Amino acid sequence: MKKLTSIFLLLLFVWTVQAQTAREEIRANRYLSANNYYAYPTPTAKQTAAPKGYEPFYISTYMRHGSRYLIDPNDYRFPKQTLLKADSLNKLTATGKNTLDIVLRMADMAEGRLGELTSVGARQHRGIAKRMYTNFPQIFADGTEVDARSTVVIRCILSMTSECLQLQAINPNLCIKNDASYHDMYYMNPPAKDLSKIASSDKVKKVQKDFEATHVRPERLMKTLFTDEAYVKANVDEARLMRRLFDLACNMQSHDTDMQLYSLFTDEECYDLWSCNNLYWYLTHACSPVTDGLMPYREADLLRNILDRADAALKEGKKQATLRFGHESCLLPLVALLELNHYGESYPDVEKLSEQWRAYDIFPMASNVQFVFFHKKGSNDVLVKVLLNEKETKLPVKTDVAPYYHWKDVESYYREKLDKYQHI
């Protein structure tokens, strides 16, 4: 009876966690509202043991760079200039003055470092390397060839370096090769010009603008920061200032600092601003019906590279690793293209999107997709499982050994999908 009660309570806990809305999750953990600025959470999920006799022999990944400084100079400049001007005219409240002080310190910290990897980001990749080794030590045995490639962006190169140095520290006998070249950019960070035009179309912009019109409400925040309402109406781009301050608040988790701006915002404001960002990424990089579900095909060449490199590794039969380091703007559409879990679904109602599709589960800083291949002595049946942020996922393919899948079925499904796209 006691055992049954424990099982019931466990199932109840799991159901409760799964039933949480995005609003509830963000209320419990504001860091989630950062979305693509969300610092990589240390995974706690356990790995399901492979079927009897199977051992891992090849891993193929695509990883986002770790936590970074903000990229756009206006992320710092605009709130800094807006608040400095108001302060010079005695228009800031005590909260406004404190906010200005934090903005100035953040801007000073970021001087000359826009978009660069932070110490937090480097630490994230060292942690991923340690767990990859712990989870799949057979792959990272003496003499294993590790082919690590990065986009030509510094934060990605340093993320690759952090991870590879950690692997080499654990096993000095690994044969690691690093590369970052424009030669590989066609699949590591493809321009996808035709699809980018669709993503920036007037139709997409209107959906986003209409949504933000009812979800970005800066009036309360402005009263918190400024003493003169008339001054604000005449001189301040309220919605823009709110969004920029929120970006700064979100990205402070990318730094080893005790500075924070989240206290400026209510729970509901955090949720609303997140939902705007969540919609943006869904419209421009996932399977939105507004863009006819085409955006994931931005990463057609990346998926093809993953398939081709896997074929080559399987033919060689030796233990090896292919590590790729890039950006969330690639990882998100890749996840949608792969149809991991429910992330390849199409959701027409933008007001309900936040309860159906949450980007913070997909692409925090240092987010990653790992294809792990397993073979069995005396068998040609190779198995694969795919991890998203080190959690086992469901693939759009039938299997009798979930979360493991027969590679021949997985490859066939994705090859056929890519072939169909070529003929659209």
Automatic annotation (TrEMBL):
GO molecular function terms noted in the UniProt entry: bisphosphoglycerate 3-phosphatase activity
Compartment list: Membrane
Main location per the UniProt record: membrane
Pfam family, one: His_Phos_2
Keyword Hydrolase recorded: yes
Region forming the signal peptide: 1-19
Reactions performed catalytically: (2R)-2,3-bisphosphoglycerate + H2O = (2R)-2-phosphoglycerate + phosphate; 1D-myo-inositol 1,2,4,5,6-pentakisphosphate + H2O = 1D-myo-inositol 1,2,5,6-tetrakisphosphate + phosphate; 1D-myo-inositol 1,2,5,6-tetrakisphosphate + H2O = 1D-myo-inositol 1,2,6-trisphosphate + phosphate; 1D-myo-inositol hexakisphosphate + H2O = 1D-myo-inositol 1,2,4,5,6-pentakisphosphate + phosphate
GO terms for cellular component: membrane
Superkingdom of this protein's organism: Bacteria
EC number of this enzyme: 3.1.3.62, 3.1.3.80
Family: Belongs to the histidine acid phosphatase family. MINPP1 subfamily.
Class of the enzyme per the UniProt entry, highest EC level: hydrolase
Protein name: Multiple inositol polyphosphate phosphatase 1
Keywords carried by this UniProt record: Hydrolase, Membrane, Signal
